[in-house]
Amino acid sequence: IPQPHPENLTPIDRSHMQVSDEEAIEIVGMNKWFGQFHVLRDIDLTVYRGERIVICGPSGSGKSTLIRCINALEEHQKGKIVVDGTELSSNLRNIDTIRSEVGMVFQHFNLFPHLTILENCTLAPIWVRKTPKKEAEETAMHFLTKVKIPEQAHKYPGQLSGGQQQRVAIARSLCMRPKIMLFDEPTSALDPEMIKEVLDTMIELAEEGMTMLVVTHEMGFARQVANRVIFMDQGQIVEQNEPEAFFGNPQNERTKLFLSQIL
Ligand code: ADP
Ligand code: MG
User: ABC transporter domain spans which residues (predicted)?
Assistant: First the structure.
């Protein structure tokens, strides 16, 4: 796993990145099973507006499942998840509300290959939000400019590099004006030279105050951007702390073992 050092990432002034005392996400006693397999155990997690949380842990520890539950891509069986004041239940209207407020970026970009970059960015705003096409295109160009690839708007995903495609995926999410952004290993499928451009885009979002949950092995990013690092193992949140304490003085044996293997 490539480990860009914090000094290689674009420096940021963390003093602007305020965390409010308003809850963006509240998870209480949440459990999830895949059939007989108990994948998430007694998850309690409150995320405040403006927080940048990095989630790490071994493969199979439940990181993806946790963030997929927050976006209602997976159903949980016990406990509650409240996103921006709306409780996630089987109520479909609630699920639509939450999906439109929570953006998600995956490891494998998940762009529509047969649509142009611009069409990828306007599809949901036009069809889900009923935004007029012209306005949706203006918004798309705004966010494509923000991720520094407006000139790619009329190309197809296959014509772009992995780093560019991932920045399109971020722009596409932003076009829905989400209040919260979830990232699931957004740089894991990228060649090393493209990791920085995606992390820099995420750093800019963080600086603008976006509430972010990021599953990543990029510990340089965690140190620099996160206000809280969460370690998961075997479906549980084992340890969480500010980055300095988390990396400098981990408490749990499983955290120590994990960090010794990746740092
Ligand atoms: P991580 O993202 O930390 O690698 P995941 O959340 O993807 O972990 O998976 C946690 C565990 O749940 C793994 O053991 C995985 O095999 C299992 N799992 C994930 N998705 C499913 C599924 N749809 N059905 C059954 N088991 C699953
Ligand atoms: Mg995963």
Answer: 25-259
Q: How far apart are CA 182 and CA 152, in angstroms?
A: 24
For ligand 2, the distance from its centroid to the CA atom of residue 2, given in whole angstroms, is 17
> Does the beta carbon of 60 lie inside 6 Å of ligand 1?
yes
Distance (angstroms) between ligand 2 centre and the Cα of 167 equals 20
State the pairing for strand pair 211-215/37-48: unpaired
Share of the chain above pLDDT 70, in %: 95
Span 136-151, average pLDDT: 97
Distances (CA, A) of 117 to 123, 153, 199: 10, 5, 20
Report whether pLDDT(15) > 70.
no
pLDDT at 2 over 50: no
Residue nearest to atom 13 of ligand 1 (CA): 60
> Distance between CA 13 and CA 225 in Å, rounded?
10
**Cβ burial 58-69 (10 Å sphere, 16+ → b, else e):** beebbbbbbbbb
**Residue 235 alpha carbon, nearest atom of ligand 1:** 10
Q: What pTM value is reported for the model?
A: 0.94
User: Rounded mean pLDDT of 189-203?
Assistant: 95
Residue whose CA is closest, atom 23 of ligand 1? 34
Determine the Cα angle at 72 with ends 29 and 88, to 5°: 55
